[in-house]
Amino acid sequence: MKKKFILLFSILFIIAIVDLTQFSTNMQMLSILIPNFRLPRLIIVLAAGMALSIAGFIIQTVAENPLADSGTIGITSGASAGSVAFLLVADHFNLTGFWNFSYPIFALLGAIIAFGLIYFFALKKNVSSVRVLLTGIAITAFFQAMITLAQLSVNSFDFQKVAVWLSGDVWQTDTSYLLVCLVLLVIALVFLPFSMNKLEIISLGEEMATTLGIDIQKTKTQLYFIALLFAAVGVLLVGGLAFVGLIAPHIAREIVGFKSRRRLAATALSGMIILVFADIISQLVIAPSSLPLGFVVAFIGAPYYIYLIQKV
Amino acid sequence: MPRRRFAMLFFTLVFFLLILSVLYLMLGAKNYPLSAVLQNKIVLQLRLPRLLSLYLVGFLLSTSGFLVQIMTRNPLAEMSTLGISGGASFALSLLLTFGLSTNDGISVIISSVGAFLALSVVMLLTARTHFQPLKVVLVGTSVGLFATSLASSMTFASHNTQAYFLWIVGSFSGITDTKVILMTVVSCIFLIVLFLFSNRIKLLSFGDEMATSLGVSVNQVRFAIMILVALAAGATIASVGVISFVGLIAPHIVKPFARTNFWQNVILSVLTGMILLVLADLAARNLFKPYEFPAGSLTMLLGAPFFLWIIAKEAK
Questions:
Q1: Is-annotated flag, keyword Membrane (chain A) (predicted)?
Q2: Of A73, A169, A270, B218, which residue is most buried, by most CB within 10 angstroms?
Q3: Global pTM?
Q4: What's the CA gap between A260 and A90, in Å, rounded?
Q5: A163–B150: do the CB atoms touch at under 8 Å?
Q6: Which of B76, B129, B156 to mutate to probe the A interface, most A CBs <10 Å?
Q7: Looking at residue B39, which CATH number applies to its domain?
Q8: What is the dihedral of CA B274, B276, B278, B282, to 10 degrees?
Q9: Is A310 helix (H, G, I), strand (E, B) or coil?
Q10: What range defines the domain where residue B166 resides?
């Protein structure tokens, strides 16, 4: 088991180095590029990979649905719509600097609204996995239409920015903004050890949990809320990036098996590896310019998702 | 339903559509009184072709939605939920990427081919699960998403993002006479084939075994429907972009009234689809003057709750 984790860590380390250097050994150029551009980007990608994959892990476990993650049940689009709502407000009143701290609040609010919808229409009623996912698609369509409408109602809005909220990319490497997001991620991570026991009990099934004297509804809601926090951090960092939270837990299960704690750690590592790897590809494919990260992830993610649907 | 009731409904819808159309011609960036509408250049050269394109798209979307719903026995089936729109968008993004014209017959054919390929992929992938309705839609939306990501990447790499985005989002603002003519041609072909196959399609709705025992080649009929829908998708998406959910909603509104009567279903769905689209574009042009937003985003916004409602019904 230790070997597997050492392997994951070393893979992550190696591709992180590749992402920073991008196969160039020109030290003079790198000494400018890395601290100013590539390192902040790498930090964002790592944090987002971690946040999105942990969110996916929690949601899959609690919803008992192998295809659920913050993207497929519509939470990502809700958080994106929340962020866009703030963009509009900021654009209208020329808010900058200090106001960047409002982004997380709006993103979290959007995520909570989306979660309210998915909970009310699907999760509450114990419906089939597939129906939960279809409800997620409807919610995503709704919020994406909102984002499109918002984007066309403001002239100064640029299309690249909207592409971020619809498909995901690194969009903001501003230091103070990054710090806010990282603080939020740390807060979410602090909650994590306390919720691991609950997560393990929930994954034993409802009857078992009830005999152990756990209030299932309450526990599930708490766990979902932590997942929302992670999902919102992910959206703040890379917008509406799909599939990472979906795939990472599956890869982790293949590597380290079912034990919750191990699987969670492996999930976070896999999520980071997937995103850094996608980032390398997005930088190299049409160099010198770069593809939005979300597209690259979708190329890997969508076929895998279709493969998983066949198995459900 | 009895002839008399059908006639009543039919004329009510036609009347409603007429009223909306007159309003559509009158209102806009500049409003004109009814008396001036028919002599006005702006109305005749800009608004009238656009109104015609709304009719044509309404026709193509509703009939296609109705047909794929019969073919896959799936109340959620529609161009966007089966990945057909995604396939057509991808084909068109190739045109944009290579800087080719998107305003001619070739573009319609190319996007139809893309639509057909995407639909075939979805059918192949879901054949093993015997076309379970909910799973088909999941696979369809994923295939669509994949195709759309490809399309976005292509246009992004060739710096056409803005053109692609504006166009794919389903707006009637860029309509040209050529596009109206192309859509008219496709609609005529569509109608003729629909007439030829209508009896066989009716039998298809009784189930495969029944249809086969009555001497219908089920696969042949399926193939014909796929070709028709791909053509319709190609023509509409090449002309106005992706308009989601109209093809889903219109047949559903009509079904309780028309029950199982094929032609009544088709005719009333078409009228309903047209009314929905004219309403959507009327709002899109007039709500936030002088800005216009794409009618497609409005149908998506209203279609999403409707989609939820159908899922709930289907699961029961």
A1: yes
A2: A73
A3: 0.91
A4: 42
A5: no
A6: B156
A7: 1.10.3470.10
A8: 180
A9: helix
A10: 3-315
CA angle B172, B178, B181 (to 5 degrees): 90
Residue B250 has pLDDT above 70, yes or no: yes
Contacts of A286 in chain B (CB under 8 A): 157
Q: How many CB pairs under 8 A join A and B?
A: 117
Residue A155's pLDDT band (boundaries 50, 70, 90)?
A: low
Nearest to A227 by CA among A48, A75, A46: A75
Q: CA A263, CA A203: separation in Å to the nearest integer?
A: 13
CB-nearest to A133 from B138, B245, B312 is: B138
Helices A216-238 and A75-93: crossing angle in degrees, nearest 10, is 50
Task: Report how many domains make up chain B.
Answer: 1
Q: How many CB atoms lie within 10 A of CB A4?
A: 14
More confident site: A86 or A278:
A278
pLDDT digits (tens, 9 = 90+) for B150-204: 998 888 888 887 778 777 888 898 888 999 999 999 999 999 999 999 999 988 8
Q: Give which of A73, A152, A241, A312 to mutate to test B binding, by max B Cβ within 10 Å.
A: A152
Amino acid of residue B105: G
Helices (H), chain B: 3-26, 34-37, 41-42, 48-71, 84-97, 105-127, 133-157, 161-168, 177-204, 208-213, 218-240, 246-258, 262-286, 295-315
Q: What is the number of helices (H) and of strands (E) in chain A?
A: 13, 0
Task: Report the C-alpha gap between A274 and A12 in whole angstroms.
Answer: 9
Give the residue on A whose Cα is nearest the Cα of B130. Answer: A310
Do the chains contact at B169 and A148, CB–CB below 8 Å?
A: yes
Residues of A in contact with B152 (CB under 8 A): 163, 167, 292, 295
pLDDT of residue A35: 85
As a whole number of angstroms, the distance between CA B164 and CA A265 comes to 40
Instruction: Give the Cα separation of B85 and B290 in Å (integer).
Output: 30
User: Could you give the domains of chain A?
Assistant: 1-311 (1.10.3470.10)
Pairwise CA distance, residues A306 & A309, whole Å? 5
In this complex, is the C-beta atom of A290 within 8 Å of any C-beta atom belonging to chain B?
Answer: no
